[in-house]
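Revision sheet: structure tokens.
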Amino acid sequence: MNPPPCYDVPFREAHNVTGRIVAKAAEAGSPLEKLPLEIMQAIEPRITKAVFGVLSAEKSVESRTVYGGTAPRNVRAQAKRWLKCREASWGGPWLSVARYSCWGWPLLRL
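Predicted:
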């Protein structure tokens, strides 16, 4: 994965810039990913066309590849892990008694 377009910007500053850009998109009645680069650069000159690689909701979700992130492959991996854990903890998918999770916490079967 490529680093975010404003990789060196502190979070607080990036949050401020993002808010201003979102407000400009709302004012223009435009989805964020359709806002012209020139308008974004008028707010923050360091923004490059690479910003369009993360602006849509789908691309934003896909970009979160850290442990616990929302990237689809991460979610699939965690779902597989939890399904295996459930099978091991409950002795099978249809066992109706309460057992314990992988961390020893009680599980409730509804």
